Amino acid sequence: MWNISELPLQRLPSGSSGRLLQPFWDHLLFHHLPLISSPFLPVLLAFSSYFFFSIPFAALDLLGERVPSFYKYKIQPDRRPTVGMMAKCFTRAMYNHIFFVLPAVIIAMFILPTPRLPQDAPTLYEVIIDGLAILLLFDTQYYVWHFIHHKHSQLYRWIHAIHHEYMAPFSWSTEQLSIPELMTIGLWSNQDPVLLKCHPLTTWLTTVFSIWMSVEDHIGYDLPWTLNHLVPFGLLGGAPAHDMHHQQPSSNYAPFFSHWDRIFGTAVPQQKKTLKR
């Protein structure tokens, strides 16, 4: 569990720091301390975000052509996930978390030092800049890892191939991962904020946001309001880039941003397919 810093809670100066997020942070410290100090909170945030973010896109897939205003944005309209495929992915994610992630958290409780919850909330500037730093660092780590696992046939076969079971990704396939890949991602997700000395609130907010980005990468729809369209200059790859990666696995290795693929010549633009009648 997280430690609170030296002053007793009743002496915490609610909102006195002048930081916009301070009242919210004080509320968490006073009323939800057992929850936010639990080492299981990051797992709960990540898995619940994956679950709730995936549901609307799963419904969209099941409705299919009955909602043409959305289905026209389907990148591979001739490939639709079935209920069985969705259930398989979600079941695997549940299995991995119950039998591997949770035990790893329990073991870490006895090995790693207990972190401390600060009394002051982060500033909005710190949330944005530190959150961006976390995402950029993770993006770099995963690009290198991803590239290596696609170039080394045995690594690909035993560790990463399971994620490429489906040529057309869908929201539930976001966590269609092997145990080694899931644990590697979990290690980076937990230790990168520690390395960058980020505030816990920044870490939690970035966790939720990164899960949204990951799910959005796998939805299989090039919707006009997704982040890759909202963020200018093509800085984010989004669903079009990752969908192309599943069609052409030697391309678009970065999980979020597009700069590494552009720099190393692994960027491949989307090739829109039409529905076969």
Give a written overview of the molecule.
It is a single chain. With 277 residues, this protein is mainly alpha-helical. The protein has twelve helices and two strands, in the order E-H-H-H-H-H-E-H-H-H-H-H-H-H. It has a two-stranded parallel ribbon. Helix 6 (124-151) packs across helix 7 (153-160), helix 6 packs antiparallel against helix 8 (179-195) and helix 6 crosses helix 9.
Quick summary:
The protein has 277 residues and is an all-alpha fold. The chain contains twelve helices and two strands.
Give the SSE layout.
Elements: E1 3-4, H1 22-31, H2 33-36, H3 41-63, H4 68-71, H5 83-111, E2 116-117, H6 124-151, H7 153-160, H8 179-195, H9 200-218, H10 227-230, H11 238-247, H12 259-263
Parallel strand pairs: 1-2
Helix pairs in contact: 3-5, 3-9, 6-7, 6-8, 6-9, 9-11
The helix count comes to: 12
- Beta-strand share of residues: under 5%
From N to C, what is the helix and strand string? Answer: EHHHHHEHHHHHHH
Task: Classify the helix fraction into a percent range.
Answer: 55-70%
Structural class: mainly alpha
From the spread of the alpha carbons, the general shape counts as globular
Strand order of the largest sheet: 1-2
Provide mean pLDDT, rounded. Answer: 92
Number of strands: 2
Q: Spans with pLDDT under 50 lasting ≥5 residues?
A: 5-16
For the termini, the CA-CA separation is 57 Å
Radius of gyration: 20 Å
